[in-house]
Amino acid sequence: MKQVRGQWESYLIDVVDGHLVIAGSDKRGTIYGIYEISQRIGVSPWYWMADAPVVHHDEVYYDAGRIVQPSPKVKYRGIFINDEWPSFGTWCNNHFGGVNAKAYAHIFELLLRLKANYFWPAMWATAFNEDDPESPRLADEMGIVMGTSHHEPMMRAHKEYTSRREEVGPWDYATNKERVDKFFREGMERNKSYDNLVTIGMRGDGDVAMGSGDDTENMKTLAKVIEGQRKIIKDIYGKPDAVPQLWAIFTEVQRYYDAGFTVPDDVTLLLCDNNWGYIRRKGRDFERKRKGGLGLYYHIDMNGGPWNDRWVNTTTVPKLREQLNLAYQSGIDRIWIINVGDLKPKEMPIDFIMHYAWNPDAIQPGDEQAWLESFTRSIFGESYAQETADIIAKYSKYNLWRKAEVQVPGIYNQEEMLKVNNLWQALVLRCEALKEQLPSEAQDAFYQLVYYPVVASAGVAQIYNCATMGDSLTINELMKKDQRLTDHYNKHLAGGKWDGMMLDNHIGYTQWSIPNSNRHPMTLGFRVTHNLTPSADSKEYTIPAYRYVRKDEGWIFLPDLGRGKGCMGAKDVMKEYPQGGPALEYEVELATPQPSIAIGILPTQDILPARGLRLGVQLDDYPMQVIDARQGIVDTFGEYTKQNLAVSKVLKPLPSRNHLALSGWMNGRPLPRRDEVFDNIRWLEVPLNATPGKHSLKLVMIDPEIVVEQLVVNPDNHHYSYFGKDFWSFQ
């Protein structure tokens, strides 16, 4: 057993003297080995949480030889149940009498079957340790490392504070240090015998910024907070670094960190995404050398800015792989904690992320669909694996075009509405046909993982297209169908097992937060202001990024990423080319004396602020222009990026291309007519100094995080198009 001795969560499976031996390097290693055998005999990790059918065998034989599972590449891998009302909380109340150990036992088992190890519990209206003391005891017994969310320090839930606010006093360390420290100490003492990963630091009362708004004063206070917390840990454990700790660099805390604030070297820096699945920072050399390393807090569910993304899965496997690969390659590998909302219906991306976290190198660009087929095979069997995987890939891609919560009338022109409707309806027909073929034992899992997200999402997309056309009667019927689908999920699916799990309103958003009810879009005052008919004589045309005439080594095709068949990105996301590197070359025909090109890239965040996010553009033999893709972009929290950029040409994204043709609906955001995060694409318009006619255009890699989706030549901003003219001819 020396192959696994002393390793982290490693295991060995072998036949020794006629006995099947499972030997783990530690407690969880052994558990993972047992569940590996379980899955190989036909028990999906989702057998309970998604009613995946269990394969019956009269006899089972082990013939795989010796299996040695190395340690995971990401040390702590887990999920955060969040935004749990009305759905998850109601379901727990209906079935378990509360958000308690009976409910969590199923989640802990799921995590272990997925080879995960870390958990942040629900916190909107519950206190994990106090509501049911059996919950933390059970987590420790089963082998789950417990933590608390990014704004709940020292193993204390926010509700533990609000329930004793009068006793503890103001949540203000500058004026109430003694009582707040006592509150922290009691939490750590209570949980000291369990396996914990402790959140340190402090925000305001709840998930809000701390202090007066003066960053300098807040940083001084935060330094005292962490000093006090570390003393408490030392008093209880004997050393200030005796228990693993994290500091979440989230929202305003990002500003403090960028201004130079830091924490002791053994504390993991938990970097974050932009709440919609694009990481906000990349690991740097000095950060990778920290004893505590780097972690990632990542969302596949969001309740808050920039907008809600709660209802169904809207995340594709190619997007997850591209962004998580960027994180992993840059050294973010100590912690991955994923905000999954209610857990359901985000089953597929949860499964992928936990698999990917174990060994990101095992899933390369182009392997995504094969992984998805392995996921569906483990649930629906070989006969249905390919079809179910393709349907899941397509529905999540279509939802990423426009998530339900940010749908409004007027997103698409007439041609695009027809095409989008047809694609959704074709997917619905495939679902209906497959539903008839599947055996009865697979029907409940199929409804949860495939049928409901497809058919209900198709209905929402059609509702908004009907609103664009003023078809109120059809909307009424579609909303009734939506309610029937939801009622079946809650009342009849698996004999009523999931009653309460699908309660999120998802039609008729007018601000970021969940509406009180599903609302007819035509009653909300939206105005469609653009011409729905594309211009027949426009000189605009689209070139997908992969339709190049020449490619240098260094660029690779990223299949199924973005809106179309795929994008072009860097083979090595850590290799920069400050003077310009590998190029993609295109033939373009420019139509006007002052032509321009619109370059559509994925909305990569400002991941290295001091450097920029640069792309070279070269026409014919003219000098290369360097553009910075950040300029004018509004980040998640409504703040403009403002840097002095040492570039030869700074360009702003198109102000009107692919805009939301509405006024005021985004509740005061600085760019009310468009949003690169909602569109899932960022447009950069490049003015060119050239005469009309045929030319060679090169896109030159400088910063490798930029992913190029398409080029629009001679962009016509007077005629609305969401996807770009000729987009559909390449799909």
Give a concise summary.
The protein is 33% helix and 16% strand. By secondary structure, the protein is an alpha/beta fold. The strands form 5 sheets. Strands 6-5-4-11-10-9-8-7 form an 8-stranded parallel beta sheet, covered by helices on one side. It has a 5-stranded antiparallel beta sheet with strand order 13-16-21-18-19, with no helix packed on it.
Task: Describe the 3D structure.
The structure is a single chain. By secondary structure, the protein is of the alpha/beta class. Helix content is 33%, strand content 16%. It folds into four domains: 59 residues, no CATH class; 290 residues, Glycosyl hydrolase family 115 (TIM Barrel, Alpha-Beta Barrel); 143 residues, Methane Monooxygenase Hydroxylase, Chain G, domain 1, CATH 1.20.58.2150; 190 residues, Jelly Rolls, CATH 2.60.120. The strands form five sheets. Strands 6-5-4-11-10-9-8-7 form an eight-stranded parallel β-sheet, covered by helices on one side. It has a five-stranded antiparallel β-sheet with strand order 13-16-21-18-19, with no helix packed on it. It has a four-stranded antiparallel β-sheet with strand order 12-22-17-20. Helix 17 runs antiparallel to helix 18. The radius of gyration is 26 Å and the shape is globular. About 6% of the residues have low confidence.
